[in-house]
Amino acid sequence: MLTSDLLRAGPGVRLADIDPRGTPGVTSRKDPKQWSRVEVSLIGAELASHQEMLYADAKAGSDPRRVLLVLQAMDCGGKDGTVKNVVGQFDPLGLRIVSFGAPTKEELAHPFLWRIKNALPPAGYVGVFNRSHYEDVLIVRVHDLVPRRVWARRYDTINRFEAELVGEGYTLVKVMLHISKEEQRKRLADRLSDPTKHWKYNPGDIDERGYWDDYQEAYQAVLDRCSTEAAPWYVVPADRKWYRNYAVAALLREAFEGLNLKYPKADFDLKNEVKRLEASM
Ligand code: ATP
Ligand code: MG
């Protein structure tokens, strides 16, 4: 079965029923970490070749297609690790990675999608959003950073926006890395006990942790309202990093396979060019 079918957030999906330690589609292995490392690097080679075709095709003509990976997770959910281990296998030349933190003053003066639109990948590129416009219905909803009636309208706005993107040639791969509260505690404890990880520790994360249930509810609303036909959400169980890396790589591979990419045909006379090269020696 396709990973995308196993992990797609379909109608009636309950986040609370998805085991963050689960490994859908992967049967038990003797050494799952090693298996995943090998598998992810094999998939990585395929991803790089798809990416090259995407890039070449956009360069050669007017192919508007591009792929956008949207990553969302609770703090310590593994977004950065996913970028490093999975996204890191793409050619940086055709890659655009953007992280979204708390909006700046300038960003706040614009509609919430303004900074998102400015960060979209050009045709031929793979884009990655490390957090995204969904923060505007997650942290913003949990803390009522804008009035309820304002954030409540955003689900439909987001759906319209994403449908437009898909119409313009975007393939959206929206991934929620789903960790348990206990796993977050462990990862926070790890950061505290290792001086080389202190830079990753943010005291505010403990405050947000206090709103765990509210965040789960906000994520549930995202899955209910914004997992559309055009741009579905995928929930990746992420307590096990080896599974997370494998699943995101597999989802990207399936998205690329759906594009049926091919190298563009040469727009020059091949025989003639070979002759010209010979004659030039
Ligand atoms: P990470 O994404 O791994 O937490 P970080 O801690 O280095 O990375 P920050 O620059 O602190 O990143 O930004 C992340 C914080 O910004 C998160 O707490 C997130 O909820 C918040 N944030 C992102 N978008 C918005 C938004 N639209 N409104 C308010 N807060 C936001
Ligand atoms: Mg943070």
From TrEMBL:
<protein>
    <submittedName>
        <fullName>PPK2 family polyphosphate:nucleotide phosphotransferase</fullName>
    </submittedName>
</protein>
<keyword id="KW-0418">Kinase</keyword>
<dbReference type="InterPro" id="IPR027417">
    <property type="entry name" value="P-loop_NTPase"/>
</dbReference>
<dbReference type="InterPro" id="IPR022300">
    <property type="entry name" value="PPK2-rel_1"/>
</dbReference>
<dbReference type="Pfam" id="PF03976">
    <property type="entry name" value="PPK2"/>
</dbReference>
<dbReference type="GO" id="GO:0008976">
    <property type="term" value="F:polyphosphate kinase activity"/>
</dbReference>
<feature type="region of interest" description="Disordered">
    <location>
        <begin position="13"/>
        <end position="33"/>
    </location>
</feature>
<keyword id="KW-0808">Transferase</keyword>
<dbReference type="InterPro" id="IPR016898">
    <property type="entry name" value="Polyphosphate_phosphotransfera"/>
</dbReference>
<dbReference type="GO" id="GO:0006797">
    <property type="term" value="P:polyphosphate metabolic process"/>
</dbReference>
<dbReference type="InterPro" id="IPR022488">
    <property type="entry name" value="PPK2-related"/>
</dbReference>
<feature type="domain" description="Polyphosphate kinase-2-related">
    <location>
        <begin position="51"/>
        <end position="257"/>
    </location>
</feature>
